[in-house]
Amino acid sequence: xxxxxxxxxxxxxxxxxxxxxxxxxxxxxxxxxxxxxxxxxxxxxxxxxxxxxxxxxxxxxxxxxxxxxxxxxxxxxxxxxxxxxxxxxxxxxxxxxxxxxxxxxxxxxxxxxxxxxxxxxxxxxxxxxxxxxxxxxxxxxxxxxxxxxxxxxxxxxxxxxxxxxxxxxxxxxxxxxxxxxxxxxxxxxxxxxxxxxxxxxxxxxxxxxxxxxxxxxxxxxxxx
Length: 224
Fold this sequence. Notes:
- This protein has two domains: about 1-45, no CATH class; about 55-135 and about 170-224, L,D-transpeptidase catalytic domain-like (Beta Barrel).
- The protein is built from five helices and 13 strands.
- It has helices spanning about 5-15, 20-25, 55-60, 75-80, 205-215; strands at about 70, 85-90, 95-100, 105-110, 120-125, 130, 135-145, 150-155, 165-170, 175, 185, 200, 220-224.
């Protein structure tokens, strides 16, 4: 490389605010010299390597699995019905997946049992379906005689009800029972952590879809 070429490269590099070593400009394999004028840290920009709209792209998002977003495979979801559906619930991810056979139809957020009331793992099936006014007979709110809430997270079996007061069970619309001792999937508040008394809370935006795609006997697997 002639002197004129080297001088030109040095001038260009200085104008850009960095100094490039001659070794770098003369041949491959040499590491560039750090820029002494770089005082602010440079943040790496994450680029999702997968095609937008694919499930691989969805699960590669930085906010997955904590995101409230729902993945839907439109064609597969449309073909999913009570004769071919199954559900897999992943407690570690706090997400559930609706399948058509072995094809993923939908991936959505859930909230399972908290540390005091952990959701049991294992293989289950839908035992009962109640579309609307299903209420818990154990967990809910306690009101005093004036109608004020005195306990918003009450256990009817142990928490006292004041004289003249009443207990109101938590609303569990689109109830899909998994056990006869009170565990099931239903509509509810879904923070991105385990918060229920053992049930699988499902967002209102998808619970009706799930409800309409399953039947009594649909297999449900709960994984740790």
